[in-house]
Design brief:
- The complex is a heterodimer of chains A (335) and B (331).
- Helix content of chain A is 26%, strand content 29%.
- Chain A folds into two domains: 232 residues, Zn peptidases (Aminopeptidase, 3-Layer(aba) Sandwich), CATH 3.40.630; 82 residues, Elongation Factor Tu (Ef-tu), domain 3, CATH 2.40.30.40.
- In chain A, strand 14, helix 7 and strand 15 form a beta-alpha-beta unit.
- Chain A has nine helices and 17 strands.
- By secondary structure, chain A is α+β, with helices and mostly antiparallel strands.
- Chain B has 331 residues and is α+β, with helices and mostly antiparallel strands.
- Chain B folds into two domains: 235 residues, Aminopeptidase; 80 residues, Peptidase M42, domain 2 (Elongation Factor Tu (Ef-tu), domain 3), CATH 2.40.30.
- Chain B starts with a helix and ends in a 5-residue tail after the last helix.
- The chains are: A alpha+beta (335), B alpha+beta (331).
- Chains A and B meet through strand 4, strand 5 and helix 6 of A and strand 16 and helix 5 of B.
Chain lengths: 335, 331
Amino acid sequence: MNVDVLKSLLETFGPSGREEKVRDKIVELIKNLVDGYRVDKLGNLIAWKNGTGPNKKRVLFDAHMDQIGVVVTYKDENDFLRVEPVGGITPQVIYGMRLNFDGTIGVVGVERETSKAYKENLKNLDFDKMFVDIVTSNGSNIEVGSFGVYDAKPIFAEKKVMSPALDDRIGCAMLVELLNVVDNPYNDLYLAFSVQEEHSLAGASVEAFDIKPDIAVAVDVTASADTPKADKRTSMIMGKGPAIKVMDSLSVSNVKVVELLKRTAENNNLRYQMEVLHMGGTDAFGIERTAEGVLTGALSIPTRYIHTPSEVCNLEDANEGVKLMKILIEEEITF
Amino acid sequence: MYIETLSNLYGISGFEDEVVEYIKKSISNRVMDLKEDFIKNLIAFIPGKIHDFKLAIFAHTDEVGLMITRVNDDGTLKFSPVGGVDPRVLVGKRVKIGKEVEGVIGFKPIHLQHSEKVSPSFDNLSIFVGENYKKVTVGDPVHFTTKFEESGDFYVGKAFDDRAGCAVLIDMIQSVSEFPCDTYFVFASQEEVGLRGSGVAIANLNVDAALVVEGTTAGDNPELESEHWSTHVGNGPAIVSVHSGYVVDKSMFENLVKIASENSIPFQIKRRTAGGTDAARIARVGRGTPAGVVAIPSRYIHSPVSVISKSDFHHTSELLKAFIESGVFLS
C-alpha cells in the first residue's frame, strides 16, 4: 500500500455529493495505468483495463469516494451555523469538534441557556441543539447548502492508520494500488469510484449499468469487534486479514462470489476472515440490483470507530486485500 | 387558473386519472407528442433548438389521502393512509369516498375523553357515511374535499403537493416560446407512496438531466424557532441542496441559484434535509440522471388544507422559465 497515496486521499475534501476533488486526485493517480476512464452523469469515476484471457470475465471492483459530512441548514445574523448530517454522524461525536468547510474551520457548540437545559441537551443530544461557530473566517464564505467534514489529520503508526474518511478512502487507495500491481490482466478489470454512498448509495445504483460486469465486489470498511465491550454478536478483528462479507443489513452477498473470494484466498495462502454484520450496508446493495442483476459480493477492511474522526484500521489487511484482487484479475475465473 | 382546478381535482396515488385528463386537455394545443404509460405517467415532448441534449421536467400528479380497508354495516368505514398522513389532522374532516359518497372522519368526543387522552390513530378513527356504506367497497380511494380559495397573498387548498408543480409545468409549456433543447414534461404518478411513477418514466427516457418541481414542507410555525424551519412561505421558491435519498446535483443546484440571483428572483435554499422527491428515484434508475429540485413552500403540507404564497408560486414559474431559457444547464 502506497502510504502517500492513502494520505493524500484522506486529506482531500469530499462529503457525499461533493466528491469532485477526490475524483480529480484519483484521475491523476490512475490515468496512466488504465486503458480508459470516464465520469458518468452522477459523478462516478469508471476506469478499465482490458484483459487478454480467452475466457475472460468482466470484474468490477467498487470503492466510494465520499465521506460522511454535514450540510449547512441555517446561518444566523452573527454567522452561527446550524447543520444537519449527510450520512451517519452521531451528534455526540461532534460536540467540541472542529469541522472543515472546505478550508474554513469551525467548532461545534451546544445550546445551554440553563444548567438544567445544558445537562438535558447533552443527554439527548441532537443536531437541533447544536451550532457551528466559524473561527477561521468571518463566515461570509459559508452559505446554507455549504458542506463540511470532520477536521482531523491522518496519523500513520507502523501498520496502523487513524483518520477520518478511511471509510472509504482506504478502499479507493486499494483500487489505485491494484492498478499499480496488476500485471497482464486475464480478466477485464473495471473500477468504479462511486459517489453518495454515505448518503443514499445513489452512485452505486447506476455505475454498473453500462459495465454489465460478470461479478462485482464492493471494497469498503466494516465494523471491527475487537475493542472493550465491542459488539458481542460479530467477529471481525483488525489485522486478521480482509473480511469476505456474507451479509449485512442491506444485502446478502452472492454465494458464488463469496466462494470465489474464499477459494482464491485459500489457494494462495492469503489471510482472510468471514464477515456477517447485523447493521450497515455497502455499494453492493446498489450494484446487485442493476439492470438484470449482478453477482455481487464485498471485501471489507475491519475498522474501529467507523464514522468518527478517528477511524482506525490496519494497512496489512488492505495489502492482503489488494493481493486477493490482483489474483482475481490475473487468473481465469470459474464458478 | 390551472392551480385552482388542479387543487380541486381528486387523485390519490394510483388514482390520478382525473388529473391526467385535465392536464392532457390543458397542454394538447402546444404538445404534439403525448404519451401515457401503464402506471399513469403522462409524458409530453416538446422539441427544442438542439437535439443532442435532452431535459426532463417532473411534477407529480398524485396527492396524499386515504383508502378504505373495511366497511361496517353500522355506516362506519376503516381506512389506511396513502402517503404520509398524520392521523391527528384527520379528526372532524370531510372526505369523499370513491366518486360520490360523502363522509366525515370521527373520533371519540371530547365529552367522553375524561382524563385519558388518546391520540387519534388509524386504529381509533372511523369515517361515518350512514346508509351510503352500501355504495362503498374496500379499496375505494378517499380524498379530502377542501375547495381552493384565494386569501390575500395566499392560495389555500389541498394537494398543492404537487398540483402546484403541475400548474407550473403547464404554465411553462404554454409560455416558453422556444426550448433550448428537446424537453420532456413528465407528470408522474405515485410519488407519495415511494417515487414509483418517476422510476418507470425515467427508465423509458434517455435524458441528460432532470428538474423536479415540488411542493415542500414549510415548518415555519410560530412555535418553532426560525433556525429549525424548513422553508418560509413568502420567501420565494426553495432550491434544494440535500434531501433524503439524493444529494442534489451540484451544478444544477448552483445554476439554479445563479439564475435566480442574476434575474433578481427571490429564492431560499431549503434548510432541512428530511423528505425526498422524485429526484432520488431519477438519480438511481438505469445509468443515472442528475436532477435539480425547486420547491414551493407549503404550510400544513400533507393535511386536508395547506397554504402557499401566490408570489412564491409565480416566482417558481419565473425561476424555472429563466433557467430553461438560459440554457445554462447545457454546458
